[in-house]
Amino acid sequence: MPSALIRQALDAVDARVLALLTMLGPEAVAADPGLILRLLPQAKKLVLPPDRQRQLLGVRLPLFVSGNSHGSGGGDERGGVDLKGNWNSLLMSEWALPEEVRAYKHFRGELLYRGRVGAEPPRLRPVVLLLDISPAVYGPVEQVTRMAAYWVARSVRQRGARVVLVTSGGRESIRELAEPADLVEVWTARTLEGAKAGRSLRVARALREEAGEEAVVLVLSHAWYGSDEEQPLPKVRGLRGLFVQYPGHEVRPVIAEQCERWESMSAGQMESAAARLGRLLV
After folding, report:
1. pLDDT in tens, 7-29
2. In angstroms, how far apart are the furthest CA atoms of the chain?
């Protein structure tokens, strides 16, 4: 190929194209090399995170809960005390007891063992992502909420659970994020119309009921989301929320009372966002 054509092709590869490749991941592009060409028109619509945050695209959510587990293998870290275990993990203080006392405590299930520190796998829940794409989130807020939506969609989908995206702003759109290419919607959906929180929550509630009782609805928006509604907001079971504060403000999220769990953070706390999302999803 002539060098002029090569230079022309490279000139077309800007930051948005590189970000798109990163979002899709090498496995998806390798499995379908034509995917990037089909999605190039959408690259111009990408809401890019700042350069310093782009490296966070590879973050995986900590969807595990600390806890004690049991096992007989050697070399594992142990911590805490448990009433169940094997003889190898019996506390030294129990061995110091007279044999008759130790046998009596064993019969009553009162012997103390060292618990092995481990991680319990989380319950994988379907997730309905309610992402605010209205002008109210433009700027620092959406830098957090879009990255959070991307992390959640990729992490939960990779673990085999269903993820549905509902956009809040103008007329709601619904899209199941089943393939890597679907994740681009998180970065391209945008509107100049305001969000109707009540209507968006009703849409998300219907999708949650369709997905099953274990499903959760995760709202990603600013702390004032829902404040301009004249009617009471609908109740939604399984409602969780990550709310980003406007710079220089710190208020209780308007819909906090309706959430089973919620987290509030400033736009400058990206390093804590993954941990917060992990707590909201398990």
Report:
1. 555 455 667 777 777 777 777 77
2. 90
